[in-house]
UniProtKB/TrEMBL annotation:
SMART domains: FN3 (SM00060), IG (SM00409), IGc2 (SM00408). Residues 1-18 form the signal peptide. The gene is LOC108567426. It comes from Nicrophorus vespilloides. It comes from the Eukaryota. This is Ig-like and fibronectin type-III domain-containing protein 2 isoform X1. Keywords: Membrane, Repeat, Signal, Transmembrane, Transmembrane helix. InterPro entries: DB, FN3_dom, FN3_sf, Ig-like_dom, Ig-like_dom_sf, Ig-like_fold, Ig_I-set, Ig_sub. Residues 26-139, 920-1004, 1009-1106 form the Ig-like domain. PANTHER family: IG-LIKE AND FIBRONECTIN TYPE-III DOMAIN-CONTAINING PROTEIN C25G4.10, TITIN. Residues 278-390, 509-602, 719-817, 827-918, 1215-1306 form the Fibronectin type-III domain. The keyword Repeat applies. The chain crosses the membrane at residues 1322-1344.
Length: 1439
């Protein structure tokens, strides 16, 4: 049984004296625990030995299995129970001799005049802490079990056993070893080890060995009677028989017997002492067509107690008549098997069974019996009685004598003893060895001449396959023996057989060989005696093999058999062949002819068996069970399938249950097999409680129930069908019905009927007040009460039990016009509200108790509020339904009916259901786990809890994004791969009533540092350089600058190093690291390292400083001269512009615009100026542009601006050079240019602008890292302007020289690069030059006038600095044209480049920047992103 593991875990009556080994506890190690056996009326004495009792008290108790409790009998020396038969024997005076057990340690419970009801488990208990107990089994035997006067004296037997055997020490290790039990599990092969818990292995690891362990534990004894006496159910009695049912995936192996473990092990321990082993060496021999001889050897254990032997003979069912030889008679017999029991005295060890059926297979077992019980049956032996007219020969005839070969050899002078004894003896010649041939070689001619006896045996030798050289030995004409003949030794067996055959002393081939009764796994072989020397045959040998594709299967041999012989162990649907050999005293005769046959197919047999039995699967199909659930519709269903499909198939469990029961009443079987009363209803296919409660209570007994279902299909009658009733008269009703599918299994029918009233008519009872029996399928009910309502149903019955009602009739006994009333299902029952809310309730119910198992049933649910007058109806096929759209806090009336093809049932009981009041949703702040440590990249679990009725919809938002939404009260969400922006968590709840509610929580996402460094910084000797790193980390890291990364050499604050570390005001996770190096020199050049570290990691990024090694390409003096700087201000125009030389000269203020233009060196430094706090009104100087009013800028910001010029002169590029155009096609051109002269190595991106000259078309632009770009979608014949600027992450250059080009059909005309050597071209060039000169003059005049008017002229193209990130990205530097051209965007042209008309920027100008009174605020997030994250951002101006 599956719970046998508990045998080893719980140890039936566990000898808990193991606890007494603890220091200071009483000990029961010496307590006598052997079972006590007394006869009714005798006194029973049960002994308990307690050492070191101390101040504790000994109590005797008795187990009460009915109440699962213990009844106290005595306490100390005093009797507690009212039964005066109980007393305690105890000597309170201790002995002075320490080696002698003291009387004070012995406590004997005395039961005078014992009764059978006194049998049971008695507990000797000491009230120590912990409690120490020992368990004692008492069996009070009935006087009827006393043996006769000449039988064994039971008292003597008891004395012998008490002195020679202790059941607790029973060791069956040898048996376990012989059964190949694993060595690690041998601890279970000793009861003492099991009881003391010293098996040394977990029982689960020995599951595979338990069948053999249990078989050895039972030791061949039949403990079943004891188990029955102890009320162990039959399904749990397998261990009592020495059998073990391993738990497999099959549901029939999942049954519960744990409640009977103690009783089972108690019976085994008792039986080991009292019962005999089974008889040994059982043999069965067919004597005649009606008799068998059975013999056996006495048991190994308790042989002296055996009083008799019981022989059990069972005939097997009829064989199929498939006789290959039609002459073989096969008298007809009944297909039913029958059993014969024969008892013989213990003094006999054989008997003859007579009056059996001819040619019938019988199975024979032998059991040993004594006064206490019996052994288990011996192993089964099958035998066939002989066919009619045949009698087993009692003795074999005398075989012919062999020729005197030895005499022949000796006459020819062979005197060597080995040659005479071996080679000259045909029966021993096959034992000759090489040394024998070598010794006897001189006499070889005489030896083989005598062996052949003057005959030529060559034909036989050839037939036996002897090599040609060995065939010479068969003629006897051998002159010499050399090494070539050594190979013949392997054929000496066939050689001697040919000699014996030639002598005429062996029998010929068996005759009449044929096969009958071919089944799936066996067949019966027949043959007759050989024609020659048949009377000398002592037995036969059978050789058989399986046909294979290559015909290389070896023959298997079975020796010493007789006809007929049962050839067992065959495979189904397989071809076999066999032959027979006869054997007499001289040897083996010639083989018979080969006979071939084919075994039957198991598939066919299974189909035949299935056709004759109840088909549970067909029932499920007819009941419209879902196809996905069909694997569960089998008595051999798997537990794995049940677990997998439980969720899907639970609504259809009742269909499975009804079809499993098959309309049969299995209640008696389930009760017998230990199914508790709360689950017995399932055995009738009825579930009285919810599926959850039923499964929780009854799933341990699923195997018990499934076995009863399967057993009942062959024993119990099926349900009737088509029950009809007709009122014939005012007091008479006529009933008719159809019999079950298998009417042969029915002995009679029982009609139940009962008068009901308005209250009882809704009850469904399995037994009604009145019953009548009939063997027909119709009946008349008389003497009924007029105008009364009756319930009627019919069940089929046989000797094994009854069917279940398949339908019920409710009929009014009132005379009608022969109206036919059909039986319908009983009403649904057990209505309940499983779940409910303010707007809905879920109603569940159980299916009808009375219905045909395969009947398709639907349900009709009626409901209405107490204020409504009409019921609303809902149809469903399952046993639950959710009623939606109800009103809160309202009472509803509900009932259900069942509908089948027979009609509609009575209504179920009425259920009153209330909906809940409505409450607005309330949500608690989200709970996040782990609570204090959410790490970036890990997982976090978020719990949102919301209240409210009806159930609210909970929404989870993380950083404003909806992550999950569900209608529930508790929503658990696991977020994987957490990122640092997931710090804002919100739970939102709404149920449609009141105001929705939101609760939020901000969490901290811990992560290791991430560093953004400023990269390489160029500086001139003596400059001050600031190296910057941005650190993102949580929690706050430790930050440091290293000079050497590998040596971890720090940069120390002081001297020329100034270290500043600060936290960001806007973001608590951001930190700024600044390292300022003053008066930089060659020793300061190199790599520095920003290092940050916290508990979750560390990061290091290099920042480098380099001295510029390129000579300046800008001649400031030349620029000042070109800008007409006055002579008194030329002091500032040295190698680098020195504003300190002129800042105090009032006359130079008007030249500051010119000086700033030269100082800007063609680059845009507004990014730096904005960071240093230069106001917007002075920013034009930062790109070399003029100011309307520069006095304030001169006084306050000149040094800041010059500082930016100084910082950027080696960082910002100059404008691209030598711009030119190449034609691609009619609408495309390639713009090509050279790198800037100034700082070409700093260029990261070029921006190209183009548009049609003198038109209002939108300016187009394109970015590229290369010194060329392709532009397309050009208009044929139009002239385009094109300029280019260079840029990097620090800023941009001024615009390049403008170029104009025209796209022609075959060429591109470039205004800046035209080259024509014709005279016309020269003339055109002269004219054009004059026009240009005139234009310059006009422009100069206009410029002077505009300056005098004080109006600023700002030409060229401006676009904001993209604040290039460390890694240049087109998305970061591309500017929408609408922003680039707007004059009111917040950043204006702060980082743009103004190209004056004198630099070739004709036509590339925009409106002047008019700045109203404004104050500065931080930029928006969009603006900051557009400006970049490296600090390029400007303050946004706000009026």
């Amino acid at each position: 049984m599956p719970d046998v593991v508990w045998v080893f875990l719980l140890a039936l009556w566990p000898f808990t004296f193991g606890l007494s080994m603890k220091q200071g506890l009483p000990s029961m190690r010496d307590s006598l625990t052997n079972p006590v056996h007394v006869y009714e009326g005798d006194d029973a004495l049960i002994t308990c030995v307690v050492r070191d009792i101390g101040e504790n008290t000994v109590m005797w108790k008795k187990e009460d299995r009915e109440r699962h409790s213990r009844r106290v009998l005595t306490a100390g020396d005093s009797r507690v129970t009212a039964d005066r038969r109980y007393s305690v024997l105890h000597d309170s005076v201790s002995s002075e001799e320490k080696d002698v057990p003291t009387g004070g340690d012995v406590w004997v419970l005395v039961i005078k005049n014992s009764k059978p009801s006194d049998s049971g488990i008695y507990v000797c208990e000491v009230n120590s802490n912990p409690i120490v107990r020992s368990f004692h089994k008492l069996s009070v035997l009935s006087k009827a079990l006393l043996p006769p006067e000449n039988g064994t004296d039971a008292n003597v037997y008891e004395d012998q056993k008490a002195s020679s055997f202790n059941s607790k020490n029973h060791n069956y290790t040898d048996c376990c070893i012989s059964k190949n039990v694993s060595s690690s599990c041998l601890g279970f092969c000793n009861i003492q080890s099991i009881l003391e818990g010293n098996t040394g292995q977990d029982p689960e690891h020995c599951e595979a060995d338990f069948p053999n362990i249990v078989r050895c534990m039972a030791d061949g004894r039949n403990h079943v009677p004891c188990c029955i006496q102890e009320r162990v159910p039959d399904i749990c009695q397998d261990v009592c028989r020495g059998e073990y049912t391993a738990i497999t995936d099959n549901i029939k192996t999942h049954f519960s017997c744990s409640a009977y473990t103690e009783q089972t092990l108690a019976c085994i321990v008792e039986g080991i002492e009292l019962l005999p082993n089974p008889p040994q060496d059982v043999e069965v021999e067919a004597l005649t067509e009606k008799s068998l001889r059975v013999s056996w050897a006495h048991p190994d254990a308790n042989t002296e107690t055996v009083t008799e032997y019981s022989i059990n003979v069972t005939s097997l069912k009829t064989f199929d008549e498939r006789l290959i030889e039609p002459t073989e008679s096969n008298p007809s017999r009944s297909s039913d098997s029958h059993t014969v029991h024969v008892n013989v005295p213990s003094t006999q060890n054989e008997t003859v069974l007579n009056d059996l059926s001819p040619f019938t297979m019988y199975e024979v077992t032998v059991s040993a019996l004594n006064i206490h019980g019996s052994s288990l049956p011996s192993y089964r032996v099958r035998s066939l009685t002989l066919t009619p007219g045949k009698i087993k020969p009692t003795m074999a005839g005398t075989s012919p004598k062999l020729p005197d070969v030895k005499g022949c050899c000796m006459k020819k002078g062979i005197g060597h003893r080995t040659c005479v004894d071996k080679l000259c003896d045909p029966s021993l010649a096959d034992t000759a060895e090489i040394t024998d041939l070598m010794i006897c070689a001189p006499w070889a001619a005489d030896t083989f001449s005598c062996l052949t006896n003057g005959m030529d045996h060559t034909p036989c030798c050839k037939a036996r396959g002897l090599p040609e050289i060995c065939q010479q030995l068969c003629t006897g004409n051998v002159t010499t023996i050399d090494f070539n003949y050594f190979k013949c030794l392997r054929y000496m067996g066939d050689y001697t057989n040919c000699l014996l055959q030639g002598y005429g002393v062996l029998p010929s081939t068996p005759t009449g060989v044929h096969v009958t009764n071919i089944e799936t796994e066996f067949a019966i072989l027949h043959w007759s005696a050989p024609r020659t020397l048949g009377d000398t045959v002592i037995h036969y040998n059978v050789h058989f093999r399986m046909f294979s594709a290559f015909d290389d299967e070896d023959y298997k041999s079975i020796a010493k058999v007789h006809s007929p012989y049962i050839l067992e162990g065959l495979e189904s649907d397989t071809d076999y062949e066999f032959y027979i050999e006869a054997v007499n005293t001289h040897g083996v005769g010639e083989p018979s002819t080969r006979i071939a046959f084919r075994t039957s197919s198991k598939i066919y047999e299974a189909k035949v068996e299935e056709a004759s039995n109840y088909n549970v699967t067909a029932c499920c199909v007819e009941a419209e069970l879902s196809s996905v659930c069909l694997p569960l519709c089998s008595y051999d269903a798997n537990m794995s399938d049940i677990k997998t499909l439980a969720g899907v198939c639970s609504p259809e469990f009742t269909k499975l249950l009804r079809c499993g029961a098959g309309g049969r009443n299995h209640g008696a079987c389930c009760t017998r097999r230990g199914v508790p009363a709360s689950c017995v209803s399932l055995c009738n296919g009825v579930m009285v409680d919810s599926l959850l409660v039923t499964a929780t209570t009854c799933i341990p007994y699923i195997g018990n129930i499934a076995q009863c279902f399967e057993e009942g299909t062959g024993l119990l009658p099926g349900p009737i069908s088509e029950l009809h009733a007709t009122v014939i008269d005012d007091e008479i009703i006529a009933l008719e019905w159809e019999p079950p599918t298998d009417p042969n299994n029915v002995t009679d029918y029982v009609i139940h009927y009962q008068k009901v009233d308005n209250t009882s008519m809704h009850e469904t009872l399995l037994k009604l007040d009145k019953q009548i029996n009939t063997t027909d399928t119709s009946a008349i009910l008389n003497n009924l009460d007029r105008n009364s309502i009756y319930h009627i149903f019919v069940v089929a019955r046989n000797v094994h039990g009854t069917s279940l009602p398949s339908s019920i009739i409710m009929i009014n006994v009132t005379k009608s016009d022969g109206e036919l009333v059909s039986g319908v299902t009983s009403p649904p029952h057990s209505l309940a509200v499983s779940t409910h809310s303010a707007t809905w309730v879920t109603i569940t119910w159980q299916p009808p108790e009375f219905s045909h198992p395969s009947e398709s049933i639907t349900y009709r649910l009626y409901h209405k509020s107490t204020t409504d007058s009409v019921f609303q109806i809902t149809n469903t096929s399952v046993t639950s339904h959710t009623i939606q759209n109800l009103l809160p806090n309202t009472q509803y009336i509900v009932y259900v009916t069942a509908t089948s093809k027979k009609g509609q049932s009575m209504p179920s009981e009425t259920l009153i259901a209330w909906t809940d009041p409505a409450y607005p949703a309330f949500v608690e702040p989200p709970t996040v786990h782990p609570i204090n440590l959410v790490i970036e990249g890990s997982s976090m679990t978020i719990l949102c809890i919301a209240m409210g009725t009806p159930m609210p919809t909970i929404s989870l938002y993380i950083s404003g994004r909806l992550v999950r939404q569900e209608i529930t009260r508790h929503m658990v969400t696991v977020i994987h791969n957490v990122t640092r922006d997931m710090d804002q968590i919100s739970c939102y709840a709404d149920n449609g009533y009141g105001t929705p509610m939101q609760a939020s929580r901000k969490i901290t996402i811990s992560h290791g540092p991430h560093i953004q460094a400023s990269g390489i910084t160029m500086a001139a000797p003596g400059d001050s350089v600031t190296l910057e790193c941005k650190v993102d980390a949580q929690p706050g890291p430790k930050m440091i600058f290293w000079k050497n990364h590998e040596e971890r050499k720090p940069v120390i604050q002081g001297g020329k190093y100034d270290i500043s570390i600060s936290a960001s005001k806007d973001d608590e996770d951001k930190y700024m690291m600044h390292l300022t190096i003053n008066n930089i020199g060659n020793m300061d050049v190199g790599d520095y390292f920003c290092h940050a570290e916290n508990a979750f990691g560390s990061a290091t990024q290099p920042v480098s400083v380099r001295l510029r090694n390129l000579a300046t390409t800008h001649n400031v003096t030349q620029c000042c001269m070109e800008q007409n700087v006055s002579s008194q201000c030329m002091d500032a125009c040295s190698f680098y512009l020195d504003m300190d030389a002129v800042i105090d000269k009032a006359e130079c203020i008007n030249d500051f615009d010119k000086l700033m233009k030269c100082a800007a060196d063609g680059s845009d430094h507004r990014n730096c100026c904005a960071q240093k706090g230069v106001p917007r009104g002075c920013l034009d100087w930062c790109r070399g542009g003029p100011l309307n009013d520069n006095k304030n800028c001169v006084l306050s910001y000149t040094k800041l601006i010059m500082g930016c010029f100084h910082e950027g002169r080696d960082k910002l590029p100059g404008p691209p050079q030598n711009v030119r155009v190449e034609k691609l096609d009619m609408h495309s051109a390639k713009i090509v240019w050279d790198e800037p002269v100034k700082n070409p190595h700093t260029v990261e991106m070029y921006r190209v602008f183009w548009k049609i000259m003198n038109s209002d078309m939108k300016r187009l632009q394109k970015d590229t890292p290369n010194t060329y770009i392709d532009i397309s979608d050009l208009q044929h014949g139009e002239t385009y302007d094109c300029v280019i600027k260079a840029g990097n992450n620090k800023g941009t250059s001024t615009l390049s020289q403008a170029i104009q080009f025209t796209v022609g059909a075959e060429y591109i005309t470039s205004a800046a690069n035209s080259d024509d050597s014709s005279h016309t071209g020269v003339a055109f060039a002269i004219v054009l030059a004059l026009v240009v000169v005139a234009g310059v003059v006009v422009g100069g005049v206009w410029l002077v006038k505009t300056k005098q008017m004080g109006v600023k002229n700002q030409g060229g193209v401006a676009f904001e600095n993209p604040s290039y990130l460390r890694e240049v990205n087109m998305d970061h530097i591309q500017v929408p044209p609408t922003q680039a051209e707007s004059t009111n965007i917040p950043n204006g042209t702060a980082n743009g480049i103004a190209v004056s008309t004198t630099s070739g920027g004709h036509g590339w100008k925009q409106e002047s920047l008019h700045v109203p009174a404004q104050h500065e605020v931080n930029p928006t997030l969009y603006e900051e992103l557009k400006l970049g994250q490296d600090g390029a951002g400007f303050k946004r101006l706000k009026p």
